[in-house]
Amino acid sequence: MAAGFDLNGTDEYVTLPDNAAYDVSPDGDSIAMQVWVNPDGRTSPEVIFDRSGWFKLELDADDFLVLTLGDRTIKKTKVKVPEDKKTHILWALKHQSAVASGTADTNVASLLIDLDADWWTNGVDFSTDKRGKYVVYNRTDRTYGYGTVIPDVTLTASTSTVSATNDTIDIGSNPFEDGTPVLVKGSDVPAGTADDGTVYYVGDATGGLIYLYDTAANAVTNDGSTGLVDLTDAGSGTVTIRAREDAIALDSDLCPDGNEVVYVFAEPWQAELRVWVNGIRVLDETLPNFNTPADSAEVINVGQLKGGAQFYDGGISNVALWTPGWPNDALAAALYNEGTELTYANAAAADGSMTLLGFWAFDDNAASTTVDNDEGTAGLDGTASGNTSTLTTTTLDETEYWEAERVLKFIAATTVTGRFVIDHMEWDGSVTADDDLVVKDGTDNELWVVNNKTANERAVKYLDQLVDGLEVETIDAGTLYVYLR
Fold first, then answer.
1. Who contacts 365 (Cβ-Cβ below 8 Å, separation ≥6)?
2. How far is Cα 239 from Cα 233, in angstroms, rounded to an integer?
3. What does R_g of the chain's alpha carbons equal in angstroms?
4. Contact in structure between 201 and 218 (CB atoms under 8 Å)
5. How confident is the model at residue 159, as a pLDDT?
6. Domain for residue 253, yes or no?
7. Are residues 456 and 432 part of one domain?
8. Is residue 87 part of a domain?
9. How much is the pLDDT for 362?
10. What is the rounded distance in angstroms from the CA atom of residue 149 to the CA atom of residue 369?
11. E-strand spans in 152-292?
12. DSSP secondary-structure letter at 390?
């Protein structure tokens, strides 16, 4: 088995540096993370991953796997991660629009407006707090489009706001990206512009100042010269600079005639969350109206709640992060690899269409605080923190008694440590003799006693019981199977 760190549950953890690629913004981005764990006993929650304010993966006091996004506990799964047994955990998040292009939606519309030659009419108040992603719906042919609403910018034209010398307009704060198409509206607009439907293109001149260009290409180049509109006089009175809906080709796509009535409403972003344990999907949940937290340059702590007292106790290895990362069941099974940790090279080959950003094997020399990122992305080596002098590597061994997923098999008297929820036990004994069986928990309480079981007869005991340790004290013959919940 692959080596990993043996974290002591007290002060040992690993920090992975911040990277902008960790952020999943609402445009179809996705992220996936895997880890192999071999937990020791716990009496309180223990954090596996924590990126403060963004995501947290932990085991609660009863061994259940819990995932938190932002400040929302998304799911306390029904899956228990057993102690003293290595387990593969893979989770993935994809952020996307809830409205599929070209389909109808019953929740269209909180805002009804007319379009005037593809521009928003002045009757709609897109104030600053309404800026953001919106969906446009054409009720005539039931089609959708997407864009970013930019509120009107108004100013009082004068020599203090419009510079005929520098050809700049002072709008205070610039909400426009370079190349944004705009109209200039007003009774006395700056000379060089016209309120006649002419389209100009914004270029940022810094400090709240903007240029106007004749083409989008010149505005994107934004050299302060080529294609720059020559403002020969400041004008006077109130001037409005109105942006067309950015990224929506209303004239040629949604609204070919330029005057259709459409609905505009805040886009219902959603996220989809998936979790696999040992290659089996245990959670697939849609999170409606979910917006991922903004990036705050947060690191990822592995094995510790940032700024808190929760530490993970046990073996941990082969942390990997993909972005974009949206695995399917076949890929999740390949990464689980029937219980054998993949090396970096094999994991990179198995990740398919996902992009592997980091792979931290946790097999580094304990004398060093550097935790190598085997994938090699610059600046993503981790740092071992806490009592690093005792940070040791371990082997995440699978107990020899595991017959299959959540099934223990015994053919001789033995003791197994760990906490288990036993659903039931089955024992066949021998085919020729009457046999005895004694099974106890780790504190010597009898769970099942069979005396002189009839030969060639299968015995079953239903428990539905949590036990701390398991001892097969007597088993005269045959095979005992212990089925866990």
1. none
2. 13
3. 31
4. yes
5. 93
6. no
7. yes
8. yes
9. 87
10. 48
11. 153-157, 162-163, 168-170, 181-185, 200-204, 209-213, 237-243, 261-266, 269-277, 280-288
12. G
pLDDT of residue 88: 92
Distance CA 218, CA 178 (A): 9
Tell me what pLDDT residue 400 has: 52
Tens of pLDDT along 116-128? 333 333 333 333 3
Domain end, chosen from 212, 245, 278, is at 245
How far apart, in whole angstroms, are the C-alpha atoms of residue 227 and residue 202?
11
**Can you tell me whether residue 198 is helix, strand or coil?**
coil
Give 128's Cβ-side CA count (13 Å radius).
5
Half-sphere exposure of 453 (CA within 13 A, CB side): 25
Residue 468's domain comprises: 402-484
What the block records as the tokens of 334 is 């390949």
69 phi and psi angles, rounded to 5 deg: -120, 125
Q: Which strands sit side by side in the sheet containing 143-149, from one edge to the other? A: 119-120, 112-116, 261-266, 132-138, 143-149
* pLDDT range class, residue 401, cuts 50, 70, 90: low
Q: Are residues 410 and 386 in the same domain?
A: no
Q: DSSP class of residue 433?
A: S
Question: Per the structure, how many domains does the chain have?
Answer: 3
Boundary-marking domain end, from 341, 364, 395: 395
On the question of pLDDT at 170 being above 90, the answer is yes
Q: Of 61-70, 116-125, 438-447, where does the model show the most confidence?
A: 438-447
Q: What is the CATH number of the domain that holds 435?
A: 2.60.120
